[in-house]
Amino acid sequence: MVTQPGKPAPDTTRRSERSRRAIYDAALALVAEAGYRRTTVEGIAARAGVGKQTIYRWWESKADVLLEAFLDLTSRAAREAGGEPYAIPDTGDLAADLKAVLRATVDQLTDPRFDAPSRALAAEGVVDEEVGRRFMTQLLEPNLQLYVDRLRAAQRAGQVRPEVDPRIALEFFVSPLAQRWLQYTGPISYEYTDTLVDYALYGLAPR
User: Fold this and answer.
1) What are phi and psi of 83, to 5 degrees?
2) Which region among 35-44, 108-117, 163-172 has the lowest average model confidence (pLDDT)?
3) Rounded Cα–Cα distance for residues 73 and 53 (Å)
4) Which of 97, 102, 120, 147 could form a disulfide with 170 if both were Cys (CB 3.0 to 4.6 A apart)?
């Protein structure tokens, strides 16, 4: 491409980033409004103001677009909150660390930007095995592994019994929160998640 003397060449990197951001926003908005099945690549392209070929140049399917858009949203929200994506603190106080990360999860689940698109993806994952598998491996599994790592660190510090399986133990506080959120069985709050941690770590028997 030839440019006029004294005129800078177009910044294709910046233009591509703007297009990518527009596609992310369009995909998340559409899946929230119409659901996963009624969201199409054509619809995403039209809403983002780009050609359909632009989307197919970067992604193979709408599932690829939506999963990447959701990962990007999660990362941006974590940075806005002053933290790092996919991170559980290790202050040496297991209960405090778990409560902190679950409170951040409450903030995310009650954020309108997350609620509708994440529900749409989770619901589709129940009926579409491929979407469900990718939702688990790309979105959920990285977060669950962090709980495993943090619980193993607590085991090494003598704060958790060595025979405890972290993969099972994390379900004590992660699964009830997910079920309550998905099925609207009750409000989710800091008090609720703090209580989950206390029950999980200290049990129900008198101390």
Assistant:
1) -115, -170
2) 108-117
3) 23
4) 147
Cα 134 to Cα 124: distance, rounded to the nearest angstrom? 11
Paired tokens of 185: 């069985």
**Structure-token match 């409450």, residue found:** 106
- In angstroms, the CA 96 to CA 55 distance is 43
Q: 142, 155, 124, 144: which is closest to 62 by C-alpha?
A: 124
Which tokens go with 183? 């099925």
Give the pTM.
Answer: 0.78
**Distances from the Cα of 46 to the Cαs of 61, 156, 167, in angstroms?**
16, 53, 43
Evaluate whether 58 touches 20 at the Cβ level (below 8 Å).
yes
Task: At 170, give phi and psi (nearest 5°).
Answer: -65, -25
The amino acid that residue 172 corresponds to is F
User: Does 139 score more than 50 pLDDT?
Assistant: yes
**What b-and-e string marks burial along 41-80, b requiring 16 or more CB atoms within 10 Å of the CB?**
bebbbebbebeeebbeeebeebbbbbbbbbbbbbeebbee
Region 138-155: mean pLDDT is 92
Integer CA distances (angstroms), 110 to 7, 58, 101, 107, 118, in order = 47, 30, 14, 5, 11
Given the structure tokens 């559409």, which residue do they identify? 30
